[in-house]
Design goal:
Blueprint: E1 37-38, E2 44-45, E3 68-73, E4 78-87, E5 90-99, E6 106-107, H1 114-126, E7 129-131, E8 137-138, E9 145-146, E10 151-161, E11 170-179, E12 182-192, E13 194-203, E14 206-217, E15 220-231, E16 237-239
Antiparallel strand pairs: 1-2, 3-4, 3-7, 4-5, 4-15, 5-6, 8-13, 9-10, 10-11, 11-12, 13-14, 14-15, 15-16
Length: about 240
């Protein structure tokens, strides 16, 4: 089954939650139920908010950047992520600012030349994005991951097609938060021959949810990435469109 066209057209969603100029608490200060919380494994889900003095995140020209989120803006309350897909070595990638107060997505050219990357780096500096540090916590299918006292993330994986000769099964992957007792849909991906790797981190009173998907089927090897940011106080969510 070919890659779904909606996974190859990425753009920024309209802001679903405005933060109204609320001052971001300093790193390490609890600002919501997602900060400094415990994971299902018993270890803390680290708050990885970038320090205000950290240098601006920058990309290097000449090579395709890795899929995934790589920076956070405390002022924009948004993550900078490389979303999109790489199919049989051909990238279709975007820099997408995911979160409240974010700018529209910037499409990266397939050549990643100096002019294109310079424009991206200028935008990252202008929007106040600093590199992320630390690690995400991996999700396990069917097991809710607590991210604070009133937030948890659940990954549900359902087979929708058993496949057949030279055709791997198709699965639907749903990531849903339970925030203050309410279900909040985050991301959904359905693909044939998929190997998903969802994860979450707590950052500045928000949960950053990442979904990497490796796809292997006859004639095609691909990698895809999408992300969502959830405000742990208001439960408002902004997601990349995939």
């Amino acid at each position: 089954m070919p890659l779904m066209s909606h996974r190859l057209a990425f753009y920024a969603l309209a802001v679903l939650a405005a933060c109204g100029g609320k001052k971001e608490p300093p790193s390490g200060t609890p600002s919501g139920p997602g900060t400094g919380s415990a994971s299902a494994s018993g270890r803390p889900v680290a708050d990885a908010a970038a320090a205000p003095a950290a240098p601006a995140a920058q990309l290097t020209a000449g090579a395709a950047p890795a899929l995934g989120c790589f920076a956070w803006s405390a002022s924009r309350k948004a993550a900078a992520c490389v979303t999109g897909s790489i199919s049989n070595g051909e990238p279709e990638l975007y820099i997408e600012y995911v979160g409240a107060g974010a700018s529209p997505a910037l499409e990266l050219s397939k050549t990643f030349d100096a002019a294109g990357i310079t424009a991206v780096n200028e935008s990252l500096a202008r929007e106040g994005f600093s590199p992320l540090s630390g690690n995400d916590d991996a999700l396990t299918a069917g097991k809710p991951l607590p991210v604070g006292s009133s937030l948890s993330i659940l990954w549900t994986r359902t087979q929708t097609d058993p496949g057949g000769e030279n055709q791997p099964p198709t699965h639907k992957n749903d990531l849903v938060a339970t925030c203050n007792g309410k279900p909040v849909p985050l991301l959904t991906v359905e693909a044939e021959g998929d190997n998903p790797r969802p994860s979450v981190r707590s950052i500045g009173g928000h949960a950053l949810i990442s979904l990497h998907v490796n796809i292997g089927r006859e004639g095609e090897q691909a990698d895809q990435f999408s992300a969502a940011v959830l405000d742990t106080a208001s439960c408002a969510v902004t997601a990349s469109v995939n």
